[in-house]
What we know:
By secondary structure, the protein is mainly α. Helix content is about 45%, strand content about 10%. A 3-stranded parallel beta sheet has the order 1-2-3.
Amino acid sequence: MEDRIFLDTNILIYLVNRDSPFHYEIVKRFKDILNEYELWISRQVLREYAVIMSRPGIVENPLSSEEVASDIERWESIFQVADETEEVTRILNVKDFERFKDIKLITI
């Protein structure tokens, strides 16, 4: 499995949030890519997920802290997690974007 995909926070939210108009399409697409690609998220994505999914007013049915913690454990078991290190920051430096030329963009 050579191809890698980085998933942003909104994808995780749409996977879980059945109230989202994108939920069913994302679930379908996720099932299609789950075993075909190496899937990546970051610690930042996990933090954003926790904040968004637990806040009333942001999502229609916010999750409890226990549910968010359980989801994060599940995401960590499914995805590769990019830790925040100096190397990751260096890779994300604008001059180094050439290193991302092989990343595929998946749209809904």
